[in-house]
Amino acid sequence: MTNEEILTKITDVVRDELDEDDIVLTPETKARDVEGWDSLAHVRIVVAVEQEFGVRFDMAEITNLDSVGDLVALVQTTAG
Amino acid sequence: MQSSVSQLPWLPDVVPNFRDACKALVPGAENLGSTIQRLATSRLSAQQAGALGRAISRLNAGGADLTPLTPFRLAVLPSATFDMVGDALPAACARHGVALSLDVAPAEQVDQVALDPASGTLGGSPDAIYLAIDHRWFGVDHLRDGSLDDMVARLATIVAAVQDRTGAPCIIPTIPVPPLPLFGSFDRRIGVSMVHRIGRLNGGIAELSETSGSILLDLATLADTIGRENWFDDRYHHLYKLPVAAAAVPIYADWIGRLIGAARGRARKCLILDLDNTCWGGVIGDDGLEGIQIGPGSPAGEAFAAVQQYALDLKARGIILAVSSKNNDETARQAFRDHPDMLLRESDIAVFQANWEDKPSNIEAIARTLSIGLDSVVLLDDNAAERAQVRAALPMVAVPELPSDAADYPATLAAAGYFEALSFSDEDRGRAATYEANAQRAVVMATSRDLGDYLRSLDMRIAFAPFDALNRARIAQLINKSNQFNLTTRRYTESDVAAFEADPETWTLQVRLSDRFSDFGMIGVIIASPAASLRSTWEIDTWLMSCRVLGRQVEQAMLAALAAAGASAGIDTLVGRYRPTPKNNMVADHYKKLGFVAMPQDGPDDLFALALGDFVAPALPFNQ
Lengths: 80, 624
Known about the structure:
- The structure holds two protein chains of two kinds.
- By secondary structure, chain A is an all-alpha fold.
- Chain A has a single domain (3-79), classed as ACP-like (Non-ribosomal Peptide Synthetase Peptidyl Carrier Protein, Chain A).
- Chain A has helices at residues 3-18, 39-53, 59-63, 68-79.
- In chain A, α1 crosses α2 and α1 (3-18) packs across α4 (68-79).
- The longest helix of chain A has 16 residues, at 3-18.
- The radius of gyration of chain A is 11 Å and the shape is globular.
- Chain B is α/β, with parallel strands linked by helices.
- Chain B folds into three domains: 70-263, Rossmann fold, CATH 3.40.50; 270-449, HAD superfamily/HAD-like (Rossmann fold); 458-623, Aminopeptidase, CATH 3.40.630.30.
- Chain B has 25 helices and 17 strands.
- In chain B, strands 15-16-14-13-12-11-10-17 form an eight-stranded mixed sheet, with helices on both faces. In chain B, strands 2-1-3-4-5 form a five-stranded parallel sheet, with helices on both faces.
- In chain B, β11 and β12 (519-530) form a beta hairpin.
- Chain B starts with 17 loop residues before the first helix and ends with a strand.
């Protein structure tokens, strides 16, 4: 899977989770930039990303996430 | 492959336009409550459950009328983050007939909120209060000697305080055991291991639920059912204080939904059983009494015996049993009367519907006869097309999806939790008996149910071809096996069939049918040839069809093919013959229904004629 494909899927997950179809994500986007992406939404989004890609992240990997790009990279290394 | 219970495999797939359907849930919309329940009765993702839950909360807050859903206000005192379960809860409750309003206290303040007379969470007149606690709240630890009695007493104090404050019952959970044994099997024996201590604690909790009038939510059993390693997720507990794995949330919410539904009398009361390939292997109309598989003779027989045994066990705890089967009444009852390996007998069945009418009408007749609502009924049926038809026509009937292997039927039905109860009285035990279980037949009311949409939705493909060598054996098999939908019951050998193939004067037809659920293979045969003494006339020597494809207008399609072929061959009249036998009474009116006109009898046979000039092929729901 390419990073673009991963980003597209993550964008779908986030749009679904925040119930907002207009959200646009770039690798530089951070959670605090997106309306509704609070700590609870963050949990749900990470869980949903795990389920979407059929992967399991380590705790440390989850706590180290800073930007959407980090999440894309994490999916890429875990799912391949 | 069997789906894990945590994936709720008995629920059908979500409708394709789910998000639009959710957005259409606005005050004043028609049938809001039923639509919500229908949307909830599907395998929702976490996001979908959340979206539906938000719609329900919005509508509740605005005072919308959500009949037939029963309103219920639940307060929750959680010892850990409850949000993910809370998101899934309104949809899960709607699935069980309840419109839920939820008040969740801040996490980790169970004792404070319960004992604080001014707490806001408990001030909203809840109908029940769920104490969402776990082993951490109790402080159960390995090899520590803290008194279990003290732990139970602490919970009892909380329960009493909440009940005093609200006048409403508590829902209290049993405690799943974290999968961290210190020895292995010896943990069970050693008094200070978690396995042993939580086991005793759960005993105390169950007793407390009895003495305090609280409702017991057996999370320990739920966790065991899906596997405790799947229930707990330490990562998310360490990160976010989430007490359970995300994948366990839907079934956790569904178990709460069942209890609340049961508290409001919405649990189901009646199990309607299909017969062929549900209570026994095979189709009794085709295979005969000797051919069905039931009992210790085969693995399949044992699997179906287990289905019957589970039905009997449900009956013993007060669930009413009924039968709805597409079969001749006598043929179906014969199994119950004469087959030595049947576990179910006629006396176990309150209403026994075996006929050729559609299932929704039969289910309505059963419910009417028992004076119960359609929302009290569960249908167990192996046939995906029948399940879809009943769901579409009668959405309030619970119709579990079934896996492909009958060995998994009892567990799937059990896992769905349709018959949850909060108590069990002698009256419940004897309920099935009070329904004069004399296997009575209910009159099916002739509803002009428009099956057109349903038939088109099946996406049926029908294929016509003349007899050929490749299919000769199967054609001969059908000719010799069919007894019920068989107009003349003429038996032919394979070489007879080969002769028909080769005869230029004879018109032959083999018919195959598939739909989006299954491929039925060859399901019909026609043999027609020039009548001996009438010009430009074909007599239909053989017309047979598999009973599995009744009610789909296959007969009309076969006639259209026959008529078209006759017209091309310069034929102007078709003559049909019905030769009565003890088994083919169902086709006595076959030709009349197709528009043929009765002619003088020929001995024991009825004759019918159709003038092709008058025949117009109707629009039919097939893709060819």
